[in-house]
Structure prediction request, 98 residues.
Amino acid sequence: MAAVVKEMEGFCDAYQANREILRFHFHRPNAILHRLEQAQIPAEVFPLDGQFKVERPTFITEDEINEVLAPGGGYSDSKLAAYVFSRITQTAKKDRII
Prediction:
């Protein structure tokens, strides 16, 4: 990675001296160089406590269903179709069909 950063530094110097080395000027070599330098910084690791548990919800609330159905879909009555499907699936799970 250090070799790439060194090459990019050389390119940035050459680009400042002669902007015609790039055909299009929407590239920002100095910004790319900065991102490469930032990528060399090692990530900071935070140790987890041994008692830490990830809690995931095991059900979908009515509010979550409404939030998903509110925007609608690409065809007529798509909200209704999604609602009916969710109700049929919930009923089937209660009756252990699925």
Observations:
- The CA atoms of residues 79 and 85 lie 10 Å apart.
